[in-house]
Amino acid sequence: MKRLIDNLYKGEGAELSALTALLSGFDDEIRSYAAKKAVDARSETYGNKVYLRGLIEIGNVCKNDCFYCGIRKSNKNVSRYSLSADEILSACEKGYKLGFSTFVLQGGEVDNDEEMVKTVGRIKALYPACAVTLSLGEKSRDTYKRYKDAGADRYLLRHETCNKEHYGKIHPDSLSYDNRIRCLYDLKDLGFQVGCGFMVGSPYQTDEHLASELLFIKEFKPHMVGIGPFLPHKDTPFNSFGAGSVEKTLMMLSLIRIMNKNVLLPATTALATALGDGRIEGIRAGANVVMPNLSPSSVRDKYTLYDNKVHSGAESAEGLEMLRKCVKEAGCTIDMGRGDSLVKGE
Ligand code: SAH
């Protein structure tokens, strides 16, 4: 297994079967070995810098009904909210004063693109040196273009699984794998820095699926990859499934880093929710991005994608100081710059 990891580090290709065997058979020693190689890979590219993104959860209204997600439209127990443009702007202002240079606007999928295009324009006019990342789901190519023209720099759209059959098992029929992938290619083509990703341990996922995720990422060459463990939410059809494995998530982070040295890789909130020091462990496994929550505190409890979601706070100067200590413990330092991806567009 160590030889396979060495070969991946050297940039050699790997068979699906070998990757599957690695994901099914690794132990703590192999995982530490992969983490060490991942840290080496990160040192060659981003050094020991960890970039911060201010995450603003702009609304939990959603027209989709993804089986895993707590804010799916059929969940009647969610108290729905959507931030006004002014509220989004004031979250950006708070973040800007704390030193953030990237704002990530994430939310459920709604048809409010005209309004959002304007909001993006307002943010870019006020903070032209900052990057704006959107994570608002599937849109037409034309809508993505309008977001780009308004100044949006990056777009996060997890593909959720690269296996079409698996996609169908975790989504309603109204959503299609083909459209999700179309979105990713359109976003790239339009010049966004694009993030894809998936949950580790989502219902019906196999190790072979995870192995094919590694090959999919290698081929798609995203600028960023967001992964975290699946965590059940009590009011979803998947409430009786167990959570995804933290160890496997960390192993996947390391393998993604080893195989894609230039990629931006967040230690996600889901990882921090599953494991107290998840962010530190994520960084030790090769991650180099943390996305602290800048949403107004009044709505934080409402963006419940899964149960017991933590809001790791860098919302205050003290919160940032704590994060700085965590990152230092993982051998890295926080960089408040834009932290653009080193992955070259194609
Ligand atoms: N509507 C946007 C944002 C979705 S929420 C979009 O479609 O892209 C961001 C991510 O949270 C999702 O892509 C999904 O991978 C993750 N997520 C949703 N439910 C989850 C759960 N129960 N456990 C872990 N992650 C979850």
Give an overview in words:
- The structure is a single chain.
- With 346 residues, this protein is an alpha/beta fold.
- It has a single domain (2-335), classed as Aldolase class I (TIM Barrel), CATH 3.20.20.70.
- The chain is 44% helix and 12% strand.
- Helix 3 runs parallel beside helix 10 (246-259), helix 4 runs parallel beside helix 5 and helix 9 (207-220) packs parallel to helix 10.
- The model has no long low-confidence stretch (mean pLDDT 95).
- The structure holds S-adenosyl-L-homocysteine.
- S-adenosyl-L-homocysteine binds next to loops.
Which helices and strands occur, and which strands form pairs?
Blueprint (H helix, E strand, L loop, with lengths): L1 H8 L6 H10 L2 H18 L3 E4 L1 E6 L25 H14 L3 E6 L5 H14 L4 E5 L5 H9 L4 E3 L7 H7 L6 H13 L3 E8 L6 H14 L3 E6 L16 H14 L9 H6 L3 H7 L4 E2 L6 H4 L16 H13 L3 E3 L11
Parallel strand pairs: 1-8, 1-9, 2-3, 3-4, 4-5, 5-6, 6-7
The site of S-adenosyl-L-homocysteine has 18 residues, from loops.
